[in-house]
Amino acid sequence: MSTKKTKLEKKLWKGLANVIDPELGIDIVSLGLIYSVVAPDDKTPPEASITMTLTTPGCPLAHVFEDLVKQQLLNIPGFDPYRDLAIDLVFDPPWVQDMMSDEAKAELGFE
Known about the structure:
The protein is of the alpha+beta class and 111 residues long. The protein has a single domain (7-106), classed as 2-Layer Sandwich (GMP Synthetase, Chain A, domain 3), CATH 3.30.300. It is 29% helix and 14% strand. It has helices at 7-16, 62-73, 81-84, 102-107; strands spanning 34-38, 48-52, 85-89. A three-stranded mixed β-sheet has the order 1-2-3. The longest helix is centred in the middle third of the chain and has 12 residues, at 62-73. The termini are far apart.
């Protein structure tokens, strides 16, 4: 299995890096909340799936994350996240602070 990202996957990762966690003020990629992005380039219309988590299963803003993601990904030409994207919110494996980037840890004072 190839680990090379498709063109659409690259665009999705870039868009996800612009989704800011409303409580922490850091993007969800740097927080380590995105577990996977799958988007083959050969589908018309495009199809994509994102597996993600939240910092805690009891996150009070869990209901807004899917819309935050989809709103940000509306900017990708030819891709309609409300039609073309499935988001799987999981809590296994559970999120831990080690999943954050070094920059996110420093910004939150975890280093």
